[in-house]
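Escalated from tier 1: iron/sulfur cluster holo job.
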Amino acid sequence: MTEQHQLRREVTKKLGRSLHVRHLDSGSCNGCDWELAALLNPVYDVQRLGIDFVASPRHADLLLVTGVMTRNLQEAAVLTYEAMPEPRLVVAVGACAVGGGVFANTYAAAGSVEPILPVDVFIPGCPPRPEAIIHGLLVAVGRMKLRPLPFC
Ligand code: SF4
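Tier 2 regenerated the structure:
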């Protein structure tokens, strides 16, 4: 079974529906964001695996953060996280989100995502490839507590 099929199975098992992802760019150069965008192209097409991006954190199961945590996004990142329903997951995508990367010591940066938000999975790379992001999502879903399936 491929990793992508495993992800499809885990999403169904844990949620009984799609995994809803909210993307937050906390200060990226856009490199990581392009790799996230590739997840929706016909090559990776993560929607067929039951993964979809949503606009509101209130509809999200998982927060994908790209970029170094800039000081002016810090409060918005916390508010976004607090607006998500439990159980909620946080995934840091790319070297900047994981450890500050090349922007770590600049005046506008507060550093990596971890001290600001509780990160469940770190995906290294500058930027990480879409395959690495899919792998990180699989690991994250595996850490999600089982939810009771809704009545049909
Ligand atoms: S990890 Fe690399 S590609 Fe991603 S935001 Fe940082 S510099 Fe850009």
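The domain at 3-142 is CATH 3.40.50.12280 (Rossmann fold).
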